[in-house]
Design brief:
It is built from 2 helices and 62 strands. The protein is an all-beta fold. The relative contact order is 0.06.
């Protein structure tokens, strides 16, 4: 770096006016000594004389030694501007026709000269020693080992001074200053000096997109400092790390190394969001899913050692959603057509060529979507938006277990009474979680993943850990909250809520591939709300169960505004476990499922192995004796089935025939149900089958449509069999 103190600047200058004043013999002193560029006395000088804040005289000399006596009054301000080369000036008067004499950053490039200045309010003698100090600091940018895809790097200084009053050295404008250097170049910039807390680095790729990373600013940023920033990409290809070597004034003792971890490039997709007039790169993750058509090949391959599973991708991002959000997606393999579901959202992508599509997410309510190329739902992309968490706690807050951006690998996490587990945006927590008390909470915008937990099982069931287990004891927990986070790859059930009351699960995402990988299991609990969730599971996405020997009821459950994707078993199922008359109590009552969208079901139904996107299933908890307790007062309303796989099943109500006489299902209501498909399903849209010697009483259909046509009676698409009474169509 060149030994000089320089700024990107322009000088707004109008020819100064005013009467000449007394001559003063002026001597310039430069401070501090270690910041003085070599040969500065021989540089051209400009000296400004101020009366108040108005410039009255400007003097140019080819060097400091030839500086003439200055005509000043005793009450004056003097500023000295020392230049190595001629600078470009803009002349801009103020409202009174005088120049305000601003030093600005707009018009001078990186080769501009150094600036020193001094202010005096009272000249007491006919000789004056001017103490000139640097106004600027130098920043050098250099790149090394840049890959082809990286074309430049930018440095943004936020809240940096952009304009300076010469007569007082006062900064009157703070904004963003952007410096950049192209691949293989090195460049020196000069900015008005200030101490920054953070540097904002933008790594610009060949397609014009950029990845912004914030890092702590090096110590020593001050007037006259020389900051060297060397970007080394040698670890980028293998570790997604760019090493930033920072030096101050060329001294090794003040140098430091900063590792910039960039989002790993996904093998399948690139995703960008348009912000601040630029395309911002978003991190894309992969997740395993299981194709139902391959069930008997992959069923017992608990750890995916045979690699039968498929890989889909997902992208998390946050936005205020105050306006439509513009998205760009590139699929790295060739494709012919693409759709974005749910179809009711009406999001139509634009084909931009080279594998790229662009579209807008119109509102927060439509922020979670599936992007499917050539009809492939097992290698698709989920785009899962959210709003920033304005109530996020801080590390160290009382009662908070906090995990910030990056990867974390504790063996387990226990959340006690009144505690909050917070997984921040950009964080991945590889751990099982146990909630052990009332008032506990899991929140954040990050990921809780079971990918690194043991996946194993026997000939029928997986025996891995439940990823998030709430209450494995006997007492009831009150006011448990799960919100905002994304759950990936549980080794068994993902989220079990057992013996809970007055609790809430809201605004979460789930993706699971393993058999017995239920999404949410509500067991022996009451007053539970599941709201605004996006769930994809190979087994049940949401299951309401009255289980275990105590036979406690499941009641007062509300499920609303959820998007459901069931690859094999069931999307939302009331049951199948419904208690047993051998216990003191049990059953499932008072359930409302409202305003949900079903995106997929791709399996078949055989015998008692009932599978469907939406189902009511009544089984007693043991096979050798007893009957199930009632399932009653269940309402399904405002539901949309969006072009499910024709091999799948939409709705199935099933009552097991293996239980003793007396089991009952009653008062099941379907209201405002829309089934829409492009490919005709291979089985009936709705099937009801009751158990021998048991009954279903009260089944009501109001405004149930299939491809826009209202269903008013049973038929080929609407099968009702067994002991069912009081069946009504409206």
């Amino acid at each position: 770096m060149r030994k000089s103190i320089i700024i990107i600047a322009s000088l707004l200058l109008l020819t100064c006016c005013g009467e000449d004043m007394g001559l003063i013999d002026v001597t310039l002193d430069f401070y501090p000594a270690d910041k003085v560029p070599a040969g500065i006395f021989a540089w051209p000088h400009k000296t400004y004389i101020f009366s108040g804040n108005k410039c009255s005289k400007v003097m140019d000399t080819p060097s400091e030694r030839e500086l003439a006596d200055l005509p000043v009054r005793k009450k004056s301000s003097i500023s000295s501007l020392i230049v190595e080369n001629a600078a470009a000036f803009d002349i801009t008067p103020d409202n009174e026709g005088f120049a305000k004499d601003l030093l600005c950053i707009e018009c001078l490039d990186h080769s501009s000269p150094a600036y020193f200045a001094q202010s005096e309010s009272d000249v007491k003698d006919y000789t004056a020693r001017m103490k000139t100090v640097p106004l600027t600091m130098a920043i050098g940018l250099d790149t090394k080992n840049s890959p082809d895809e990286m074309v430049s790097v930018s440095l943004t200084l936020k809240k940096a001074p952009r304009k300076l009053l010469l007569h007082s050295n006062e900064a009157i404008d703070n904004g963003s200053v952007v410096l950049s250097v192209r691949k293989g170049e090195n460049r020196e910039y000069h900015v008005l000096a200030y101490q920054a807390d953070s540097l904002y680095l933008g790594f610009v790729r060949r397609d014009g997109s950029s990845i912004e990373v914030a890092v702590a600013a090096p110590k020593g940023m001050c007037p006259g400092a020389e900051i060297g920033l060397d970007f080394d990409y040698s670890r980028y290809e293998t570790e997604s790390i760019i090493v930033l070597n920072c030096s101050v004034d060329g001294k090794e003792s003040t140098s430091e190394e900063i590792k910039c971890l960039l989002p790993k490039l996904n093998r399948h997709y690139e995703v960008y969001v348009y912000r601040n007039d630029a395309w911002e790169y978003l991190d894309v993750h992969d997740a395993l899913v299981s194709d139902a058509s391959k069930h008997y090949f992959q069923w017992k391959d608990w750890d995916n050692s045979l690699h039968y599973r498929d890989t889909m991708s997902f992208c998390l991002f946050t936005d205020s959603f105050d306006n439509p959000v513009k998205i760009r997606v590139k699929k790295k393999a060739s494709w012919s057509n693409v759709i974005i579901r749910p179809n009711p959202y009406g999001i139509t992508p634009k084909d931009c060529g080279d594998g790229v599509i662009e579209f807008e997410i119109p509102s927060y309510e439509k922020r979670r979507i599936s992007i499917e190329f050539d009809g492939d739902r097992y290698h698709n992309l989920f785009l899962l938006g959210n709003k920033p968490d304005l109530d996020a706690p801080k590390p160290g807050d009382p009662g908070v277990i906090y995990y910030g951006p990056g990867e974390h690998n504790p063996s387990n996490v226990n959340v006690g009474p009144g505690q909050t587990l917070y997984v921040a945006e950009g964080a991945i927590l590889y751990s099982k979680v146990r909630i052990t008390g009332s008032g506990a909470k899991i929140a954040g915008r990050g990921i809780i993943s079971g990918e690194r937990l043991k996946h194993w099982g026997d000939d029928q069931y997986s025996w891995g850990d439940i990823l998030v287990d709430i209450n494995n004891g006997k007492s009831f927990y009150d006011n448990v909250t799960i919100e905002g986070v994304t759950f990936i790859d549980s080794p068994a059930w993902c989220l079990r809520m057992l013996r809970c009351t007055n609790s809430r699960i809201e605004n979460i995402n789930m993706i699971h591939w393993i058999l017995n990988g239920d999404g949410i299991d509500i067991c022996n609990s009451d007053n539970i709300e599941i709201k605004d969730c996006f769930l994809r599971a190979y087994d049940d996405c949401i299951s309401l169960k009255s289980i275990y020997e105590e036979g406690i009821k499941v009641h007062d459950i509300k499920i609303s505004d959820c998007t459901i994707w069931a690859d094999l078993a069931r999307g939302i199922v009331v049951g199948p476990e419904s208690g047993n008359t051998a216990c003191s109590d049990g059953g499932i009552t008072d359930v409302v499922v409202d305003n949900c969208i079903f995106l997929e079901h791709a399996s078949y139904t055989s015998g008692s192995n009932v599978r469907a996107a939406l189902s009511v299933m009544q089984f007693r908890n043991w096979d050798n004796y007893g009957s199930a307790f009632p399932i009653r007062d269940i309402t399904f309303k405002n539901l949309y089935f969006d072009d499910l796989n024709p091999a799948g099943t939409h709705i199935y109500v099933y009552q097991s025939s293996s239980q003793d006489t007396g089991s009952q299902i009653s008062n099941i209501r379907f209201e405002n149900i829309q089934v829409n498909y492009k490919r005709k399903p291979s089985r009936a849209v709705f099937t009801l089958e009751t158990g021998q010697n048991n009954n279903l009483q009260g089944l009501n259909f109001k405004n149930f449509t299939i491809n826009g046509e209202r269903v008013l009676s049973a038929g080929d698409q609407f099968k009702i069999s067994g002991n069912a009474s009081e069946v009504q169509f409206e």
